[in-house]
Design brief:
With about 850 residues, the chain is an alpha/beta fold. Helices cover about 50% and strands about 15% of the residues. The chain has 4 domains: about 240 residues, Arp2/3 complex 21 kDa subunit ARPC3 (Orthogonal Bundle); about 120 residues, Beta-Lactamase; about 160 residues, Alpha-Beta Plaits (2-Layer Sandwich); about 240 residues, EAL domain (TIM Barrel).
Length: about 850
Amino acid sequence: MAPISEEATERRLRQLVAFASIVAAGILAWALSEALDPSVGSRPSITTICLLTGLCVISRLTHVRVRVRATQHSTNWNSTALLVTLAVIDPWWAVIAIAIGAPIAAILLRLPPTKFIFSIAKELVVAGSGCFALAMLDITRGTPPTWRFILSQLVIYIVMELADDLVTIPVIAVASRTPVLQRFVDNFDIKLLRLGTQALVAIGTVIVVSLSPQSVMAIPGLALSFHLWYSNRIRARSDREAWQQLAGTTEGLNDVNLDDVLHLGITHAASLFSVDLVEIAYYDKSGERVVRGDAEHVDFDGVTPNTAPASIEHTIAIPLHGSDDSAVIGELRLHFRGKVTLSERERYTLRTFASALCTALRNAAAYAELERVAAEHAHAATHDSLTGLTNRRALLDQGGKLLGQRNEHGVMALLLIDLDHFKEINDSLGHAAGDQVIIAAAQRLRATAHPGDIVARLGGDEFAVLLTGLPAPAVATHRAEQLLATLHNPVDIEGMRVGMEASGGVAVATGTSGMVELLRRADVAMYQAKRAGDRVAVYTRRRDGGEVGRRARDGERPPSLASQQFAMTYQPIVDLADGQVIAAEALARWRQTGQHADDPHAAQDIVDRGALVPELRDAVLNLALAAAADWREAGFDIPVAVNIAPHSLLDPDFPSSVIARLRTFDLPADRLVLELTETLALTPLEVVQRVLNQVREAGVRLTLDDFGSGYASLAVLSQLPLQQIKIGQDFVQRMETSAEAAAVVRSSVELGRGLGLTVIAEGIETETQRRILWELGCTAGQGHLFARPMAASRLVAALHRGSGGRPGVLADPLHDEGAVIRIPTARRSIGRGDRLPHLPA
């Protein structure tokens, strides 16, 4: 139901007052015509008129006040005074006495004009109803107080009270905007109690006056006692209801939604304090929010100047404090159309309500913040942080659901996209430029994709688009071409136009294939496109034939890991000068079912490309550390070196996992050497640097493997927590025939020595290579010259056996004990075309 406007309320009030005034004027005209007719009755004395007028004034002033909004309503004893007046003088003279006393009482009460007129009109209407009831009952003054007389007086009193309510209650209902019937039934038991009490006093007074006019002096004291008792009863009832309403109101504010709390605060405060208008100003990060309304509805919620409506004459404001009572989070404002003074109970209630509102607002704000953070975390869990696209996990989840409802979404296909030459952009222009390329690619794919498609970033420079609603499988290729075409336009980066190209593979969803299989097929198609130099390739089973071997091996990994179907071998690392074994490198050899262990690099290749990195890594670490513990018990306390896949450096939990395993095997941290690939070890990713530092701080030694084959610079290398570097076997084996390889070996040795790092050479197969490396300053090496990779138990046996009767030594020393060793003091530069000399022993 639409709320009643202020203008409509005022208009209805004026109509009711005008109607009551017209009726009152008619009653007064009748009384004057009867009083001026000498043939009707006798005229009372001036003293009697004055006494009865004073009685009417006193009864009007003796009242119990009730505030409704800015209006004060009262219950008085005017019906009692009128009943006594009708018992003493003729009815028309009683009306005239009321007409004289009512204005005097209104003046003494300082009523505003409208209330002044309504008060006089109401008193005359009540008096007229009493005269009408008296005439209908045909009671003669001076009649002895029989039961019929007493009942007649009770009827007259009830008629006057009903007339009073019929005139007053509609006006109160319109002013308070409440149903008339509700105003009649509110506090009905109190009304009955008041009616009975005042009727008893009124009828008793009439009886006393009729029996003994002198006894009228005792009536004021008795009436005052009844009045005080009734007033206290009304106040106690009002206070009890106020506390009950306060308790219900504060409980109702226990909501976690900020909007609901503000709106409930408006309606509850308006009802609790009988306010014309309530306003709550709430301060948050976005500024001041103002909510305004009354007991029925909220009519404003937004940003507005701190000004009350023009009809408001009086405002009571109380600040809303934060949890520390210093910061103000808002203000509660009670607006009235007239001057209002709150009682002590109302002021305490206001403070209690404001405190409850503060708590509710703080709780709602805290809950809103928790929801915001939870929403951010939920979004971050399913979206790529750089581009905002769906991530791999969300693509698999959402795509799986769509595939399960493929009848509703038509033909679907997955397009896997890989940016070409992206590594060169990163290396030449830096990672910031690479990020801009990735963002540009994401924006183009999102803009070109159709509604319903899922665009995702899988990681690095790899994207995926799940195409939905395709009318036919053949359309997938056309859609893929459109998407890839948008990626073949240059990107503007800091004033430079950087070219961007991409390759894609399309796999159409068929049968019951899930997202994982669909992603695998698209991956196969994408690599086919790259190898063929095409922009897009579509997956077919025939094209999958080239990947059968690798896929079959990947498919065997879970049972292989469970049954330990990979072999661990260890290749000793020796001191080049004396042949002493100083460490051993662990090599994981993959073993196909029913076959011998294959190439040791195959297992590492599977790890780098597979999804079971943590499982295989942990298995290799466990076996390597167990072997080192066995060597230690056998008397050979040498470190074991383990190759770590690049993915491990992206795992924040990797350092704690390594430390836990060292404790399990009771090995010092420096008995473990982690060999890192140059590409990822030198990346500026924060997580990689943090993992490397944590491992090094624990005491684990770090080696940079295949040094010279990557893109390491002196500036970056000097910042890594390394202890040693390894020169790849390709350079070692070609250094005698290739000037470039020789230069790499020499510069690597000199760089390592300059940084205080131990330099280890891999792939040493001849004594000449060993001697040249030692002369250059390389102190350690490994290769077939010393020993091939072997099982841990065979390595222990080889160490016990030794060389030349010396345990722990696998090669003769370069120089006899006590010999004078001459090392060249100057190293000549090796230019292009030069070869390393064969230095004499």
